[in-house]
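Field reference: sequence -> structure
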Amino acid sequence: MGKITEIFVLKMKDEKKAAKVRKEAKEDFLSLEGVETWKTYTTTDKSKPQLFAEVYTFPDYDTAKAVTPEFAKRPKTQAFLAEVEEIVVGQYFTEID
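Structure field:
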């Protein structure tokens, strides 16, 4: 199994506050060995609730399993998690041929 992409689709309590704490959480989480990227996407359909996709990449499954639990333990990422109203989806993905 190759690269692992972890995707969380989230509904936030307050998008502006979440943006501020996301920035600090992102810097902190990316400082951990094994976290390759953290990208954020948002929905564009104004007729539906705004959702965010937080997408993290890791070099392999073992690294992802080792590093992911650290997210909930770190103060800066805990502050980000406090802004999450609902986790719609959260799971590891890998590319298929």
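Note: The beta strands are 4-12, 37-42, 52-58, 84-93.
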